[in-house]
Amino acid sequence: MIVIINGSVGSGKSTVAYSMQQQFTRSVMLDGDCIGAVHPFQIYDDSRIEYLYDTLLYLIKFHKSNGYQDFVINYVFETSQSLKSLVNRLETVDPQVCCYRITCSAEEQKKRIMRRNTDQVDWELQRFIELNAIQEKAAKTGFIGKKFVTDGLSPSQIAERIIMDIKENSCREESEMVVGS
């Protein structure tokens, strides 16, 4: 199985992905930001994004050939076309690809970003607002992951609930999962 975690800056994608990885017997967590950290980096470069997606596919094929069966990918997808481009590739090696978009309130997001104790807090807060607006708009016109509102939940609780949802719903595309406080 392949689980894709989408979300804005500071939404907890990486932390949730690590937590989810621990729930599986033999699994690999692939961080799109780390794998796609090329130089020079241009945020809206289609060839860079396609290169990242091909690299993710290559890595999953390699890990599968070495006995790993479950994968968690975290990355920011701004359009349904971008997510679908990756999913189409991944379905060639695993038909079960589940996509979630984690989000939270602006207040919760600010707390999470502040806890990161980074020197880019102002930029991350602004980027969070921009990405949330982009993703909300994109979700109205296409699928960018089953929306999962995470206010008041720990990363392990989010991971457990996503896995429970996968088991109960078999990755069906449904609009929203509100489980936080």
CATH superfamily: P-loop containing nucleotide triphosphate hydrolases
Low-confidence stretches: 177-181
Order of helices and strands: EHEHHEHEHHEHE
- Across the major sheet, the strand order is 2-3-1-4-5-6
> How many β-strands, per DSSP?
6
Summarize the structure in words:
This protein is an alpha/beta fold. The protein has a single domain, classed as Rossmann fold. Helices cover 51% and strands 17% of the residues. The chain contains seven helices and six strands; from the N terminus they run E-H-E-H-H-E-H-E-H-H-E-H-E. The protein has helices at residues 13-23, 32-35, 46-65, 80-90, 106-115, 121-141, 155-169; strands at 2-7, 27-31, 70-74, 97-103, 146-149, 176-178. The chain has a six-stranded parallel beta sheet, sandwiched between helices. Helix 7 (155-169) links the parallel strand 5 (146-149) and strand 6. Helix 1 (13-23) crosses helix 7 (155-169) and helix 3 runs parallel beside helix 4. Residues 177-181 have low confidence and may be disordered.
Q: Which helices and strands occur, and which strands form pairs?
A:
Blueprint (H helix, E strand, L loop, with lengths): L1 E6 L5 H11 L3 E5 H4 L10 H20 L4 E5 L5 H11 L6 E7 L2 H10 L5 H21 L4 E4 L5 H15 L6 E3 L3
Provide the descriptors you would attach to this structure in a database record.
Rossmann fold, disordered C terminus, 51% helix, 181 residues, alpha/beta, 17% strand, single chain, 7 helices
Short recap of the structure:
With 181 residues, this protein is of the alpha/beta class.
